[in-house]
UniProtKB/TrEMBL annotation:
Subunit structure: Homotrimer.
Family: Belongs to the HAD-like hydrolase superfamily. CbbY/CbbZ/Gph/YieH family.
Cofactor: Mg(2+)
GO MF annotations, alphabetized: metal ion binding; phosphoglycolate phosphatase activity
Coiled-coil segments: none
Species annotation: Serpentinimonas raichei
Entry keyword Cell division: no
UniProt cross-references to SUPFAM superfamilies, sorted A to Z: HAD-like
Record protein name field: Phosphoglycolate phosphatase
EC number(s) from the headed UniProt entry: 3.1.3.18
Pfam families: HAD_2 (PF13419)
Keywords: Calvin cycle, Carbohydrate metabolism, Hydrolase, Magnesium, Metal-binding
HAMAP family: GPH_hydrolase_bact
Amino acid sequence: MNPAHPYDLILFDLDGTLIETAPEIADAVNDTLRELGHAPASEQQITDWIGHGTRELLLQALAQAKQSAVEAERQSSGFAAIEARFGQHYLQRCGSRSQLYPQVRQTLDALRAAGVRLVLMTNKETRYTEAVLQAHQLHAAFDRVVCGDTLAVKKPNPAGIQSCLEQFGVAPERALFVGDSSIDVATARNAGLAVWVLPYGYNMGQPIEASAPDRVIDHIGALLAPAPALQF
Ligand SMILES: O=C(O)COP(=O)(O)O
């Protein structure tokens, strides 16, 4: 137990919580669609597909462009090659139009200095997550990174959280999830954790308040600000 902070472990979502990634994801999707001879999708539409991992987002984009079904795209023999091509575009775009949200770096550093264990828990696949973290020099900020393909299941399955609680020897009531979507809220609830959310992120076009988080905070720095609910 860490007397300096009400939580011993904080798990963070990535896209829309720590880093604004949607603009360059949209660029990479549209690079791919154009190459295939399809019309581009709007940045807002692509933003609303964020949440279940980059492969799912690409499948949604292809299905919309071709007026087909997501499952038909998933089963298509050409999908592996399209995904590989998308990957090249995305890795090239990484860092071009993404940016850390306010106070992210300082807050992560301060929490770490206070002895809080920090985990990044994203549905984004490992190769893309690593590229984004590298582009923003954020790879050393976390004690563990759990991506959409790290385990056999991803958010909202609680297995990732449970694995971190076990690894760091932390009880659920001493851990907090910080995210931006109903998927994050469901993940936290499935593991019995408190969950705070940022309203500026990506929640599939829905207001995040509707998923009933414990707190809505304006910026990540609120994790450090004294609040009546917190015993600093
Ligand atoms: O890649 C996605 O679709 C979601 O990523 P996130 O879990 O960091 O929001």
